[in-house]
């Protein structure tokens, strides 16, 4: 049996800081979670917080080679632990998220922390540096614009449910740069264990595409200018899962049969991408629930993670 989730992935990834626009920064890391920052006239907006304050401080040290503006806003694209638990390192005046993200952190943040720590221990650099759960201080449900000065705005949009029920994207309309969170991945596998597959693969991705981004920073993978292709790959991954798991579900098959069918159909195109093997058992389990009519994703716990893994990746 392969090592549980990403627990066997202990090799440090190369981080690349890319200036993708005037005062717009993206830090990517060979498939590890991406982060970014946007300069306003006299402050910074940071996008995503990493898994621990120690990991976040390493990112901020690199950012500080380019700008010493104070961090006014920290924007969290969704509630997952590896995106939020480094928040305290930013010292931001305001931590922004969708209202559902705040509610999810309150409802299941502790379980998600323990689950993700077990799945991806390497990302939790110095786990003792985490002071506790992160609670956003400013939430919205639809759209929020941050005035960057000089007539520029950073728009935060909720485009529908997708990777979670509280995803937001950060959009710079003048530069046509999109920080998509985990709604779009670029040459990295999708994690859909807390997802709404049918909504994500249709209306939500339609709205992402309609923005017309020229540069896209996905949740994982390199910065891409092939935006249509990246959105297309994300949609294809979801559609293949829906087709294969849906067929097994309709004919009264088992979860294991659904997993094997989805794996066989996805592996030729996506099997070599980061976290593919790690994610797929959790993805298929959630999609099966979704097809059973379970509206909200069941809370993942360290114990449930192991049970699903042992059932499917064996
Ligand atoms: Zn996520």
TrEMBL record:
Q: Where is the Metallo-beta-lactamase domain?
A: 32-220
Cite the CDD domains for this sequence.
Answer: metallo-hydrolase-like_MBL-fold
Q: Name one Pfam family in it.
A: Lactamase_B
Query: What name does the UniProt record give this protein?
Result: MBL fold metallo-hydrolase
Q: Which organism is it from?
A: Nonomuraea recticatena
């Amino acid at each position: 049996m392969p090592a549980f989730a990403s627990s066997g992935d202990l090799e440090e990834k190369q981080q690349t800081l890319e200036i993708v626009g005037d005062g717009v920064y993206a830090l990517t890391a060979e498939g590890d979670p991406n982060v970014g920052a946007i300069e306003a006239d006299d402050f910074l907006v940071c996008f995503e917080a990493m898994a621990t304050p120690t990991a976040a401080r390493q990112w901020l040290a690199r950012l500080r080679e380019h700008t010493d503006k104070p961090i006014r806003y920290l924007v969290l694209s969704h509630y997952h632990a590896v995106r939020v638990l480094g928040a305290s390192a930013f010292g931001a005046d305001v931590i922004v998220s969708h209202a559902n993200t705040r509610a999810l952190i309150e409802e299941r943040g502790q379980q998600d922390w323990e689950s993700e720590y077990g799945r991806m221990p390497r990302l939790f650099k110095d786990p003792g540096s985490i002071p506790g759960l992160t609670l956003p201080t400013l939430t919205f449900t639809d759209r929020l614009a941050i005035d960057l000065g000089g007539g520029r705005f950073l728009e935060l949009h909720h485009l529908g449910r997708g990777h979670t029920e509280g995803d937001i994207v950060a959009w710079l309309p003048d530069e046509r740069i999109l920080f998509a969170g985990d709604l779009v991945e670029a040459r990295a596998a999708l994690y859909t264990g807390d997802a709404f597959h049918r909504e994500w693969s249709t209306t939500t991705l339609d709205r992402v595409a309609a923005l017309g981004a020229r540069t896209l920073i996905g949740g994982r993978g390199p910065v891409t200018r092939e935006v249509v292709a990246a959105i297309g790959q994300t949609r294809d991954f979801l559609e293949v899962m829906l087709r294969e798991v849906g067929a097994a579900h309709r004919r009264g098959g088992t979860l294991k049969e659904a997993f094997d069918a989805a794996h066989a159909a996805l592996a030729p195109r996506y099997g070599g991408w980061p976290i593919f093997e790690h994610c797929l058992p959790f993805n298929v389990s959630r999609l099966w629930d979704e097809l059973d009519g379970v509206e909200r994703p069941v809370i993942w716990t360290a114990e449930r993670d192991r049970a699903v893994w042992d059932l499917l990746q064996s």
